[in-house]
């Protein structure tokens, strides 16, 4: 792509570093911003900088939060004996949208993926195991996407919990293997949480 302006080229380059944004889309977005009043760009830049600067992660579940403990963990109406283990905040949002789940969450921050150099120590698995050892948690629902990385992560967590008194279940998936959790429709996802199955059964089924 040939640019008549170095300023334009830089802006397009930075925009194209975002996931899913190719050079053409980046150019379209940058030209769009250029046509907008200056305060639009200022508001966008300010919101992003402020987010990066001030964002917190919940001490308990590692969800993104404006406070030390997130609204979900702080809500006394939620059942703290059930914890749903998810990959990231998008999964929390997807499950919350179903209105079928009243327990807490644990956000891992990714999946074990040797290909991408992500090991168990890069995720919040240690704090999950400590939480279970504390004894409040009675059931853990593993709700990772049914990809190879998701299965590996589920199995690793299951092994770490060996000998601890906790029921481990996995969401009954009505969606095909490889579908990411956030793309499942709300009805299917809600039903799959209600109809969850013991994790042992899901290993035997494979
Ligand atoms: Zn929380």
Automatic annotation (TrEMBL):
This is Recombination protein RecR. Pfam families: RecR_C, RecR_HhH, RecR_ZnF, Toprim_4. A zinc finger (C4-type) spans 58-73. InterPro entries: DNA_Rcmb_RecR (IPR000093), Rcmb_RecR (IPR023627), Rcmb_RecR_Znf (IPR015967), TOPRIM_dom (IPR006171), TOPRIM_RecR (IPR034137). One of its GO terms (molecular function) is DNA binding. Keywords: DNA damage, DNA recombination, DNA repair, Metal-binding, Zinc, Zinc-finger. Belongs to the RecR family. SMART domains: TOPRIM. SUPFAM superfamilies: Recombination protein RecR. One of its GO terms (biological process) is DNA repair. The keyword Zinc-finger applies. Residues 81-176 form the Toprim domain. CDD domains: TOPRIM_recR. It comes from the Bacteria. May play a role in DNA repair. It seems to be involved in an RecBC-independent recombinational process of DNA repair. It may act with RecF and RecO.
């Amino acid at each position: 792509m040939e640019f008549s302006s170095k300023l334009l080229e830089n802006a397009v380059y930075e925009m194209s570093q975002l996931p899913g944004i190719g050079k053409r889309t980046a150019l379209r977005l940058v030209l769009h911003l250029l046509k907008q009043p200056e305060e639009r760009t200022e508001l966008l830049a300010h919101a992003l900088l402020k987010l990066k600067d001030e964002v917190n992660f919940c001490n308990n579940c590692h969800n993104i939060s404006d406070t030390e403990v997130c609204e979900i963990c702080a809500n006394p109406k939620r059942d703290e004996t059930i914890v749903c283990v998810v990959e990231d905040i998008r999964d929390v949002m997807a499950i919350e949208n179903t209105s079928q789940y009243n327990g807490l969450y644990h956000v891992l921050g990714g999946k074990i993926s040797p290909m991408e150099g992500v090991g168990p120590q890069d995720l919040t698995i240690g704090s999950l195991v400590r939480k279970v050892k504390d004894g409040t948690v009675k059931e853990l629902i593993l709700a990772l996407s049914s990809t190879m990385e998701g299965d590996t992560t589920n199995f690793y967590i299951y092994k770490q919990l060996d000998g601890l008194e906790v029921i481990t279940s996995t969401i009954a998936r009505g969606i095909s293997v490889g579908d990411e959790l956030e793309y499942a429709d709300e009805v299917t996802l809600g039903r799959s949480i209600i109809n969850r199955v013991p994790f042992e059964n899901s290993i035997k089924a494979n």
